[in-house]
Prior knowledge:
The chain is an all-alpha fold. Helices cover 83% and strands 0% of the residues. The protein has five helices and no strands. The longest helix has 50 residues, at 2-51.
Amino acid sequence: MTATLTPSVSRLFQFAVEYVRANGAKLVKFLVVTGGSVVLGQLIFASLLYGLDWPYVRSNITSVAIMVMPNYLMNRYWVWGKKSKNNFKTEVLPFWTMAFIGFLFSTLAVWYVESQGWPKITALIANFVAYGVVWVFKFFVMERFLFGAPADDADAAEPIAV
């Protein structure tokens, strides 16, 4: 069994290395956008929780609502360099679906924390972990199905400089 597993792991590792070589700049941009969005989203969430003393779930919903549009725009225009008109069916709707899944996971996690009477810091941690699960898959979904699809003429004509 080990003999058949080793070549598969080796091929997977080789694929990962080749993928990073071919898409390194895009991955770095995605990590910058993701990192910035996470930090800003957590700051908004913490400000609402601690500064305004809002309930956990209300704070979560508000922070997610504030961050979803800037995240879409930064990913579409900067990470993937799209210049063409937004396509509702192939870009906007799938992105918002992923955002809703992240929102749902984080809201359920934050609701659970609040229902247990746990400290506010645990709500921040729950939000972060719930979104982390979704972010792992988000890059590949955006690359494969949303923005990484073959460039149309408008996108190919003028790439966005970093």
